[in-house]
Write a structure and sequence with these properties.
This protein is an alpha+beta fold. Helices cover 21% and strands 30% of the residues.
């Protein structure tokens, strides 16, 4: 299903390696960056696990509307801590090891990545329906663990817990769900393992 919030479109992907170790730290970094003036609501921000000989941690990618990419790049150079790496195609900033992590992050979506900020995410608070998820956000596919081929009625309720993290799977932004009480569903990822600061909830 394609909607005004669809994840597709002309975007440039900036990879960021700011030395974050955990998903929680990477989520917090994303929310801090989204507060910067040049980073608009159209940005699709993902986390990526980094596993190299040099470092194990979590990097970030920002898929930015092409028209905004130069302004966002300048904002990131100013906002990120010293030692961070940035990569956008052939453009880089920072030390070589951090740039390497940033390049890997920039190359990951839409093959892989865990989306933290994406078009329509602001609608996903409290209890929503399957129709809300597919019609008002960039989420394109819903999968129930244990029943991957299940067809979900559009009025099925989903308990978001204000924490909805879909993942890129084969180029499709996919949300994994699990059964919840009362015939409802809930995202597979719960807030407790990766809580972000309360002011960004």
């Amino acid at each position: 299903m394609t909607s005004p919030h669809h994840a597709s479109g002309v975007r440039s992907v900036i990879g960021v390696d700011a030395g974050t170790a955990s998903l929680r730290e990477a989520d917090h970094l994303i929310h801090r960056l989204l507060d910067r003036p040049a980073v608009t609501e159209g940005v699709l921000a993902c986390t990526h696990l980094l596993r190299t000989d040099e470092r194990r941690g979590t990097t970030v990618s920002l898929a930015v509307p092409h028209a905004d990419v130069d302004a966002v790049w300048r904002e990131l150079v100013e906002a990120l801590p010293e030692g961070s790496g940035l990569a956008l195609a052939d453009r880089t900033h920072g030390p070589a090891d951090a740039v390497h992590g940033a390049r890997l992050a920039a190359a990951a979506p839409p093959a892989s990545g865990r989306a933290v900020a994406y078009p329509g995410v602001a609608h996903l608070t409290g209890t929503v329906t399957v129709a809300d998820l597919l019609g008002r956000t960039a989420v394109e596919r819903l999968v129930v663990l244990g029943a991957p081929d299940a067809r979900l009625p559009l009025d099925t309720e989903v308990l978001t817990q204000d924490h909805v993290r879909p993942e890129w799977r084969d180029g499709v932004l996919t949300l994994a769900l699990v059964p919840a009480a009362g015939g409802r569903l809930a995202p597979f990822e719960v807030p407790n393992p990766t809580p972000c600061c309360a002011d960004h909830a």
